[in-house]
From TrEMBL:
Keywords, comma-separated and alphabetical: Metal-binding, Zinc, Zinc-finger
Highest taxon listed in the record's lineage: Eukaryota
Entry keyword Phosphoprotein: no
Residues in RING-type domain copies: 19-68
Gene3D superfamilies attached to this UniProt entry: Zinc/RING finger domain, C3HC4 (zinc finger) (3.30.40.10)
InterPro entries tied to this protein: Znf_C3HC4_RING-type, Znf_RING, Znf_RING/FYVE/PHD, Znf_RING_CS
Pfam families: zf-C3HC4
Name of the protein in its database record: RING-type domain-containing protein
One GO MF term attached to the UniProt entry: zinc ion binding
Database matches in PROSITE patterns: ZF_RING_1 (PS00518), ZF_RING_2 (PS50089)
Originating organism: Brassica cretica (Mustard)
Length: 151
């Protein structure tokens, strides 16, 4: 009979796991990116805030309150297809580092259109006709890739 009570208790517990921080039902489900322990989004953000207030330098990662694994972000708003990330280190905004060329290209999208012609000297670019020149490296790379895909 004791085994039956344990089974019933464990099945009801696994169906609605409480947040390990507030011990209440999980609001806005979120996971740490390395260990995937589940918390309320607000609770784990508050945990990170408390931990970061106790150290002198900015955090680049935070230890999970349950297993002490280092994590660099919180995964939340998971809908089965996509999710959002909140990084512990405020300087990290993406999961990758942008090259100088990528940053330059992004600058084009986040600058006013009238301002672009002055900064990037668009008329000079069109006069050089760089866009119309053959790129042998690109041609050979595309040929190899297409051949590999067609086999």
């Amino acid at each position: 009979m004791a085994a039956k009570e344990i089974d019933v208790g464990s099945s009801s517990f696994s169906g609605g796991d409480p947040c390990p921080i507030c011990l209440g039902p999980i609001l806005q489900e979120s996971y740490l990116d390395t260990c995937f322990h589940k918390f309320c989004f607000g609770c784990i953000k508050q945990w990170i805030k408390v931990v970061s207030s106790k150290v002198t330098k900015p955090l680049s990662s935070v230890k999970c309150p349950l297993c002490k694994t280092d994590n660099i972000s919180i995964i939340y708003n998971f809908d089965g297809h996509s999710f959002d990330r909140h990084y512990v280190d405020p300087n990290i905004t993406d999961g990758f580092v942008l090259t100088k060329e990528h940053r330059y290209r992004l600058q084009c999208y986040y600058t006013e259109s009238g301002f672009l012609a002055d900064v990037f000297d668009v008329p000079r670019f069109w006069k050089l006709k760089k866009l119309l020149q053959r790129n042998r490296w690109l041609e050979s790379w595309l040929r190899r890739e297409l051949q590999a895909l067609m086999q």
